[in-house]
Amino acid sequence: MRRFGLLLVLLILAPFAAAPANAQVVALGDSSTRGHFLPASQAWPAKLEALLRGRGIDASVANEGINGDTSEGMLARLDSAAPGGTRVVIFMCCGNDNKDERHLVGDHLGNIRTIVERLRARGIAVVYSAEKRDAEGTAAARNAGASWCGWSYQGVPPEDLERSPAGVHPTPEGHDLIAARMLPCIMRALARRG
After folding, report:
1. Is the pLDDT at 105 greater than 70, yes or no?
2. Is 54 domain-assigned?
3. Engineered SS bond to 42: which of 38, 89, 118, 154, CB 3.0-4.6 Å?
4. Domain holding 137: CATH number?
């Protein structure tokens, strides 16, 4: 009976044992990733790292969000944002694409597809989360090989979203909810990449 219990524990933990020490995860996005004027420790990438470590996964989560960024900007900085050693990229996109005359993007769908394809060609798992209900962008990411992790603010109640002239952004409590929703997606991506 004791052997059965040990075997059961090993089977449950086996998918997560594939994540090596210091697995590198990159959160690529805009202000919704950066934390829109919050300290970095209150943004969801830092909270996700703490949740992963709480599960015994020694993973670093780099916050590569830039306020006001578009898919064009993310594509232009992709290689520096996801350096060698990156295993998983959480691609949270593209709330700023074509939202006003300062954020015009010529090939929104092509940028999404190219970002995912370039990362996948490097052997990097991509987890996609759309900032707005962009079914075409989501389809482009998924068709290029990204796994889907829901809408960015999915499950975040209105009281945990702040509205300002810069747009809608999560509060620190909203970032907690985003990190918790991302956790199983990233754990699965790290296990698959082992």
Report:
1. yes
2. yes
3. 38
4. 3.40.50.1110
